[in-house]
Write a structure and sequence with these properties.
Structural class: alpha/beta
Bound molecules: pyridoxal-5'-phosphate
Pfam families: Aminotran_3
EC number: 2.6.1.11, 2.6.1.17
Protein name: Acetylornithine/N-succinyldiaminopimelate aminotransferase
CATH superfamily of the largest domain: Type I PLP-dependent aspartate aminotransferase-like (Major domain)
Keywords: Aminotransferase, Pyridoxal phosphate, Transferase
Shape: globular
Strand order of the largest sheet: 4-10-9-8-7-5-6
Radius of gyration: 21 Å
Distance between the termini: 52 Å
Strand content: 15-25%
Cofactor: pyridoxal 5'-phosphate
Number of domains: 2
Amino acid sequence: MNLFNVYPLFNINPVKAQGSFLWDDKGQQYLDFYGGHAVISIGHNHPHYQKTLKEQLDKISFYSNSVQNELQTELAEKLGRISGYEDYSLFLCNSGAEANENALKLASFHNGKSKVVYFSGSFHGRTSAAVSVTDNPKIVAPVNYDERFIRSEWNNTGQLEDIFEKEGTEISSVIIEGIQGVGGVMIPDAAFLMRIKELCQQYDAVLILDEVQSGYGRSGYFFAHQEYGIQPDLITTAKGMGNGFPIGGVLIHPEFQATNGLLGTTFGGNHLACAAAIAVLDVMKDENLMENARIMGDYIEEKIKMLPHIRSIRRKGLMIGIELDRDCAEVRSRLLYDHHIFTGNSNDKAVLRILPALNIKKEETDLFINALKTVLEGLTTEAAKALTH
Ligand SMILES: Cc1ncc(COP(=O)(O)O)c(C=O)c1O
């Protein structure tokens, strides 16, 4: 059997990883500045993470959600404490798309309405409702297309007000990323977020903050929206939550009523997944990783901001979008093949997306900074060469 060929692959086969480094089957070392799509939050194979998972494997790795699971309770308590959302409750699932799917559904159960507003540039996942609120027609199949999903322009308060004026009584929820990742590291205006919150309150719509990529300390806050002091009704999380072990969650405002069978999953919140997520939170707290994200993010920006070919840097903590004056593909490929550094791209072709582990060290950021400098200055030299010939 062949694999269903949906991924463009680099010809690199990583077989080992530690901290912010990977090694391929030929022994070549790579610096990881992308964390496999923002997943690696506490570094590869962190000793505490490994120990916790190994110990859990020796005890029990799975039973369904029909029995007591104290690890779920421990995870919910720790997540509540570190995020400041202690009075919210937690529904556990397996991925970011699933977290958003459940949030959209829960909002609709809650207020009995069925329309959803989403924003240009959004990415919320590939399952049914999640892909319907994703702004990329190429991945929305006809079966997922529905006029009840309404697209509004990013950071455009006036357009959103018009939509609410026309259809507000039918709008169940508004879904927005804390910071758009796939869209090119787009940061919402504070006034825009605050107006969304007001409109949701005015029209009894649920505000869903998708913190799947921007959450878990990446922005220097636990959730990116916390910088603005707004409180969403539902918050979704995944990616960094398990540092590679699949787990997602929805944080749910106390106003929402749980009833038996309302939501459910076979694998969500299993013992191994909870052990992984607890280990991540322990390391984040013990090693002050939110602070490190702020410090290292500031340092990287300061060091690269004067480099040639950079138009702008969009950044919070270690969620960094470097907008170049050209398609970033060549720069990315030189970083990977000449300097052995993984970076990411985005739907905005000019934006290089940088998402290192939150415990990245200064000397590791220097490797990236120096490599980026060489690559970008190399582009200048070549352009100059081309002009003199
Ligand atoms: C903001 C956001 N939401 C949801 C998702 C979907 O997560 P998953 O791939 O775990 O389903 C992603 C993935 O990139 C994301 O960036």
